[in-house]
Design a protein that fits this description.
50% of the residues lie in helices and 25% in strands. A hairpin with a 3-residue loop joins strand 3 and strand 4. The N and C termini lie far apart (79 Å). Strands 1-3-4-2 form a four-stranded mixed β-sheet. By secondary structure, it is of the alpha+beta class.
Length: 183
């Protein structure tokens, strides 16, 4: 820390005596000035952090908006073409995977359903949720490559020990364009 009057570096001996040996200024004045400067620096840092967080939030919202638009308009098929469209570019295989626990209460409900020969709605709902999640992942991977469609979609279901189930989806990311009316 420096003396506010003369700018000399304050030493431990000067702090013990309570004054700057170079100019005779009270150390308490320098400490108050130091604290005021530190408060100003903290306020500036807090403002910069707040602005940075706002900018990140804005960018994140914009990315989510763009992704939602791409997701909404992404064409999907288990086949290998779209009627009225031609595939102009192949980007390669895209996938999405997830592993989910079935949960203790789901297992109990499924056991009861199994006993009575009924649908295990707890598992069905988890499976639906997992399929939607992996499809979103695959679409994101496709859009990241520049695709606007996925062909040849195939799901794979897996069971793991410990009441875990996995869902995997695979397809080929492509760019599909509508046939022109003049062609």
């Amino acid at each position: 820390m420096k003396c506010i009057k003369c700018g000399a570096e304050l030493t431990g001996e000067m702090f013990t005596c309570g004054m700057c040996f170079s100019c005779g200024c009270s150390i308490s004045e320098s400490e108050e000035a130091f604290e005021a400067e530190q408060s100003k620096i903290r306020a500036e840092a807090d403002l910069a952090i707040r602005q940075q967080k706002e900018e990140l939030a804005r960018k994140s919202q914009e990315e989510q908006r763009i992704y939602a638009e791409r997701y909404k308009n992404h064409m999907l098929t288990t086949g290998f073409s779209f009627e009225g469209y031609r595939i102009t570019q192949y980007f390669g295989i895209v996938t999405g995977e997830t592993v989910m626990g079935t949960g203790y209460f789901s297992d109990i409900g499924a056991s009861i359903s199994d006993f009575f020969g009924a649908e295990a709605s707890e598992y069905s709902e988890k499976l639906r949720t997992a399929k939607q999640a992996v499809l979103k992942i695959m679409i994101k991977n496709s859009t990241d490559l520049g695709g606007n469609a996925i062909i040849g979609i195939s799901y794979e279901l897996m069971t793991f020990s410990g009441n875990m189930m996995g869902v995997s989806v695979t397809g080929t990311a492509v760019k599909a364009e509508r046939f022109s009316d003049n062609a």
